[in-house]
């Protein structure tokens, strides 16, 4: 079917997205930093399930590293038809009165700089393929507007804005650009979050439960597939109805 690159795919949502795309037949480049062992486990799991994947170490916020990553993936697996910018650094909560420019830059690094570097590096190959799919991983946070999360929410809103403009600019090249906005999906990094905190969120989810990484991956897989060929510039929020827009 072709090649999919998923960034930050050694754990969390990225790992599940990689597994799902591999199950659909994509050869998956599992980008990671720094957890090589975790990335190898994802790759081994995909191979055991009959899929194809390889692990690629790269800091996706660094321009030279992104160029090298895309060249390595194209060299080993072939041209990239699907890009999923998923990686994130820490997302610390901070009161608005304490948020400084560096706090904004820390988030923009992952949700504006990195997707931009990746998009610019993969689109020439997608052009040669006659088209491609960019599926950004956004967030419900711009709509939810949780106190303490202004830098993260602003960067995620910027990522959605990029999605729309890129959809217009890349549409004529056959490249669709969409965004999946997950609600709170407990993953490894939430292991220490108090049960009461999760329960307080869950109470306001119309579908009455927390979502799972597989439910995010299912929607990413749709947007990566031929079935979504006439969908571009869209956001699909996957949060059981927690926010509605
Ligand atoms: N899990 C949720 O509740 C949730 C909700 C909304 C949005 N999201 C979004 O989903 C995406 C994945 O989040 P997650 O919860 O799975 O987080 P995660 O921390 O489990 O996964 C992120 C991965 O990115 C990797 N990474 C960090 N810096 C990197 C770099 N410079 N280069 C390459 N990889 C790097 C990390 O090592 C990690 O493996 C993020 O964009 C996040 O904002 C998650």
Report on the architecture of this protein.
The protein has 245 residues and is α/β, with parallel strands linked by helices. The protein has one domain: Rossmann fold. It has eight helices and seven strands; from the N terminus they run E-H-E-H-E-H-E-H-E-H-H-E-H-H-E. It has helices at 12-23, 36-48, 63-76, 101-129, 141-144, 150-170, 195-202, 213-224, and strands at residues 3-6, 27-32, 52-57, 80-84, 132-137, 175-182, 235-238. Helix 1 (12-23) packs across helix 8, helix 3 (63-76) runs parallel beside helix 4 and helix 4 (101-129) packs parallel to helix 6 (150-170). The longest helix is centred in the middle third of the chain and has 29 residues, at 101-129. The structure holds nicotinamide-adenine-dinucleotide (NAD). The site of nicotinamide-adenine-dinucleotide has 25 residues, from helix 1.
Write the layout of secondary structure elements.
Blueprint: E1 3-6, H1 12-23, E2 27-32, H2 36-48, E3 52-57, H3 63-76, E4 80-84, H4 101-129, E5 132-137, H5 141-144, H6 150-170, E6 175-182, H7 195-202, H8 213-224, E7 235-238
Parallel strand pairs: 1-2, 1-4, 2-3, 4-5, 5-6, 6-7
Helix pairs in contact: 1-2, 1-8, 3-4, 4-6
List key phrases describing it:
245 residues; alpha/beta; Rossmann fold; seven-stranded parallel beta sheet; 46% helix; 16% strand; binds nicotinamide-adenine-dinucleotide
Distinct small molecules: nicotinamide-adenine-dinucleotide
Strand line-up in the sheet with most strands: 3-2-1-4-5-6-7
Counting helices, strands and paired strands, the structural category is alpha/beta
What is the count of helical runs? 8
Q: Which parts are unreliable, with pLDDT below 50 for 5 consecutive residues or more?
A: none
Order of helices and strands: EHEHEHEHEHHEHHE
What value does the Rg take, in angstroms?
Answer: 17 Å
* CATH evolutionary superfamily: NAD(P)-binding Rossmann-like Domain
Count of strand segments: 7
């Amino acid at each position: 079917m072709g090649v999919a690159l998923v960034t930050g795919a050694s754990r969390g949502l990225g790992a599940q997205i990689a597994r799902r795309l591999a199950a659909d037949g994509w050869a998956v480049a599992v980008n990671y930093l720094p957890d090589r062992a975790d990335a190898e486990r994802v790759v081994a799991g995909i191979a055991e399930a009959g899929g194809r994947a390889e692990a690629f170490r790269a800091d996706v916020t660094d321009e030279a590293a992104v160029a090298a990553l895309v060249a390595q993936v194209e060299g080993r697996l072939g041209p990239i038809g699907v890009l999923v910018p998923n990686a994130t650094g820490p997302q610390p909560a901070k009161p608005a009165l304490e948020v400084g420019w560096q706090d904004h830059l820390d988030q923009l690094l992952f949700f504006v700089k990195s997707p931009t570097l990746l998009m610019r590096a993969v689109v020439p190959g997608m052009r040669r393929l006659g088209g491609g799919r960019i599926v950004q991983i956004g967030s419900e946070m711009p709509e939810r507007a949780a106190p303490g999360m202004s830098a993260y929410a602003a960067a995620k809103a910027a990522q959605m804005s990029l999605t729309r403009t890129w959809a217009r600019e890349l549409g004529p090249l056959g490249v669709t650009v969409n965004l999946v906005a997950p609600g709170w999906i407990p993953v490894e990094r939430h292991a220490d979050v108090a049960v009461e905190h999760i329960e307080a969120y869950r109470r306001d989810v119309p579908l009455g439960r927390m979502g799972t990484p597989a439910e995010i991956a299912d929607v990413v897989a749709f947007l990566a597939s031929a079935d979504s060929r006439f969908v571009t510039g869209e956001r699909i929020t996957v949060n059981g109805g927690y926010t509605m827009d």
